[in-house]
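Troubleshooting: if your tokenizer reports a length mismatch, compare your output against this known-good record of 403 residues.
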Amino acid sequence: MKRTRIVLFLSLLAISLNASANSEVQALLSKRFIFKKDDQGRLDTVKMKFSSKFSIKPYLVQIKNDIKAEIERMQSKSYDQELDAFIDYIEADGNHKDIDENSLVIRDALKNLPNVKVDQAFNDIHAHGVLKKFEFELKDVLKMLDLTIISNPNDARFFYRKNVTYEVVTRALNFAKKKFDNVPILNLVSFVIVKVHDLVLEQRLFHQNMLMHYLENHDHTELGLSMKEVDHMMSSIYESRIAAINLPESNNAAQNWNSYGFDKFFTMVRGANTRIRRTNSTYDAINARYNFAFVEVVEDGERVVKNLIDNKHSFSTKAPTAYNYDKPGKIKRTRALLNLGQVALGFLPIPGWLKDQAQNFLESFYVQQKLTEGALVGYFEENGNNEMAKKIKAQNINPYIQF
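Known-good structure output:
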């Protein structure tokens, strides 16, 4: 009888501890997400928690302040040395004639920033109502789409049917071309339109990757969901990433809805596992695997986090560094220069094809990489390291991602 009571006590204790662990996971999830259920208790949508009010102003303020700060920084005697280090960084780990061509143009563009009349340029881009019209139309579309939704488990074509924001961008760019005859100002307006659109939509991808950290590391019972709901949730995440012109892939998702998401996910995981196996000898040490996308290593004597999903840039197959513990501000500073380089190219009198080529090269260093880092925020938050989560968010340099 005594043994029976002990066994019962231990069983109840195990159930209690398990329930407590599950509630902790669900509490973490509730900080970032809303799991909306229908009247029958079935998962209807997964939404991210953020302010849905949209304005073009945050990015304009950020980039204007960044340009002014960079011009002021150029007064320092050590600036040329810092610029050289940045150019060395973008030239490294790749072997292609376009890299040298791009780096020369990017250097010239950054060095040209002091010649830009910043306040006047930003006053001029508000002329003709181009940005105001773009803001109004994008705000209207975003209201219809409900940007807060990051997964719709019950509709295999939910995101594909709503993939229409690019039409707003196209109309805005065409309108700008008709209104501005000053090429540098047109370039700035066009850059802002495209960039703001992308930054706003990045919120969804960033939060999806954050959610995927939990879907990888916890089963459906810990998440308080059914297995089918989790499967369909992952399928919806990947369905949202299907390009508007890729109807065959949309059909594939709809036909294989039960397994589509996790098939895609585990293909990615196998690629990441292969990558770390093939490159482990290049690191001084491998400290810890964080999740499907990130591993902590010691590289050239520095403790860093490597991204196993993306490449360093378009001409490199090396894994990019997501965070450097020994140089905490390095990634954020590098990304600020990459973004400034893109803006600065518009003020340089060069052929359009060369400008576009250099801008795409710069973009390949950080845009996709910083989205994947949503999973890194998930890892740090789950491990109680909110300070690191905030640092990863800060180096995202996206003023629309707020937490």
